[in-house]
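[step 3/7] fold_predict: job queued, chain A
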Amino acid sequence: MNYTLHQLQVFLKVTQNQSITKAAEELYLTQPAVSIQLKNFQNQFDIPLTEIVGRQLFVTDFGKEIAIAAQNILNEVHAINYKTMAYKGQLAGRLKISIVSTGKYVMPFFLTDFLKQHQGIELFLDITNKARVIESLEKNEVDFSLVSVLPKHLQTEKVELMQNKLYLVGNTTEKFDDLLYDKRIFEKLPLIYRELGSGTRHTMEKFIEQNLLPVKKKMELTSNEAVKQAVIAGLGYSIMPLIGLKNELVSGELQIIPVEGFPIKSVWNLIWLKSKNFSPIAKSFLDYIKKEKSKIIKEKFEWFEQYQ
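[step 4/7] structure written:
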């Protein structure tokens, strides 16, 4: 046996995703590079680790056993690295955060300088929908979660990061010249929705219900990016978070349609379980956020604050 730590990492990521393509994306490698590492690792075993049925990759029973061993080995390697850095007086270990999909436009700016200051910290950032974010928090799988809709069934504490603003948007093929439209405009605009479990969907439906809007549901898509592209293509309109629209508004691919009652405002909250025992890393990150958040918002989100 002459496998490398890199091969273990690649194999483990492939087994977790059951996909070479997805593993390559998460490892920031090309698909051929992952395939080569997987093949080199497989060549060291007489028993198949994976198999292809149709176009789907499956992990064999033997492969699952090797994946468990690979995870244990990598955990021990991480532990050695963390202990070495801790001995030198550096913060070292993992910071685990789950964020809703639109949070990818927010959270990185609150992480960059902190991670630069503490190079021994390994970041685990899970970007998914609201339902999965809350589930990972409830199971204590993460230190923090970023949400705009607070979970009612969990006892949590929070730090407010910044506002979240949702606007009615469409592409620029049709002109909307009025300074402000009545809510009855929704009678003629087909709306594109996010999937159930999405925080954006929750906020959007709550607003529609409270205002008794006569909406026409056109379709349902599973990510803000997919909704954005559908709107750009002219498939309909949507109520979307401003935070993810900067480039499209600047380029003229999208426009904000001024409607009374908009924007819908909520708040991005960094939350954690009330009973959470923080690691030194999590405690340090929370202190950093409380101290630096105003500065970060001013430096990184000035364009966002200009929209009222």
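[step 5/7] annotate
The mean pLDDT is 89.
The first helix runs from residue 5 to 17.
exit 0
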